[in-house]
Amino acid sequence: MKRRDFLKQTSSGITAAAALTTLSSIQSVFANNLLRLEKQNNKDDYFANLRTEYLLNNEITYFNHGSIGTIPRAIHEAHTGYLKLCESNPWFYMWGEPWAKALAETREKVAEFLGCSAGELAFTHNTTEGFNLLASGLPLKAGDEVVFSSLNHAGAGQCWFHHAKEKDFSVKKFEFPIQEVPNLSKEDIVDIYAKNISEKTRVVVFPHIDNLVGIRYPVKELAKMARKKGVQYVAVDGAQAVGMVDVNLQEMGVDFYAASPHKWLQAPKGTGVLYIRKEVQPDVKPMWVTWGQERWKNSVRIFEDYGTRNLAATLTLGNAVDFQSKLNSKGAAQRRKALRDTFYQTLKNNSKFSWRSPLDADLATSLYTVELKETSSRALFKEMFEKHGYVFRPFESENRNAIRLSLNVFNTFEEIDRFNKIAG
Ligand SMILES: Cc1ncc(COP(=O)(O)O)c(C=O)c1O
What we know:
Layout: H1 3-12, H2 14-40, E1 61-62, H3 73-88, H4 90-95, H5 97-114, E2 121-124, H6 127-137, E3 145-149, H7 158-167, E4 170-174, H8 186-196, E5 201-207, H9 219-228, E6 233-237, H10 249-252, E7 256-259, E8 272-276, H11 311-329, H12 332-348, E9 353-355, E10 367-372, H13 377-388, E11 390-391, E12 393-397, E13 400-406, H14 413-423
Parallel strand pairs: 1-11, 3-4, 3-5, 5-6, 6-7
Antiparallel strand pairs: 2-8, 7-8, 9-10, 10-13, 12-13
Helix pairs in contact: 2-3, 3-11, 5-11, 6-7, 8-9, 12-14
Bound molecules: pyridoxal-5'-phosphate.
């Protein structure tokens, strides 16, 4: 095609229509993949055969979805489809109409999945970026305090210390009673935070699910308590939650929620989301400042425009949501619970291990930790990985010698059984 003809077609919308067809063909391959998956696994246990849908090395038994997820072929294919399409005419896809529309649709879909409006959801790279944006952008000053616990991940904690120096506010990191975790209830958790909030507290930060012992925090109750005590901003770290448990931001009543869909939502690495409640958006100064900032005034996009981005990865978030919704409709939550219950039953009577995660059903999640009584956790990990292909997270410090297990739907009971035979 001559350059002049191409330009003519672009302005008349014909090329845009052609691009849409290609985009929709990626989507229809994806839809067929979901359909095939449904048919293939209908016969017996839907999840038992799911492993072949992933690119994971056959030698690996993956118990570390809490660190980073692995994406199914169908999602990977959609992602590479977008990447290829983009490379066929980068300028056109990065800034053209078809992908602007696709991006808006993706935002709608992800927002619906998280129970918020599209105007409240920014696309970031990860949770760490979301919290950096909040710590740098909230109007905090001398006399204000930010509160979080020792179970906060550094990605949602470190940035507050950094900006506290600059703006002269204070940060209180209180010690969470980690030894008591197996016996805690929802009410206990709310009490623990309530005791650490003072009249100075302007921001409270807590995880939806923490990465150390895997407590599912009673977000709604915590937010309610914090508001009652006069806290202005409630910020939640959803890194371990999105894709693992249902998230309904409107119901939760929080101001901010940052997450990393590359963990449990099985989205491409480096895809993050940040919810900023509409009413508090004017309070937050954007972290990225670039040309044309004016056009995003009064739009959540002012918090995500850091210049050129990997749009293909962002669009794939929509596929990850569709895939997850399919798994949810097939009983993903029950599957993960059954795996957890099996692991608990397997380890609870073994004198080499001591269970460190919540036992209360309301607080228990698919991320759990056991303390090792005889072996060093690093030594166990080394042996289990090098000789048997198991991947999990060891924690070894002065007062901790534990391993963290985080199993997703395609893990199997046989994998747990084998783990027990080798490590038990
Ligand atoms: C609870 C929690 N918060 C934050 C993070 C940081 O996530 P990211 O590196 O994707 O920003 C992690 C990562 O493991 C996490 O588990």
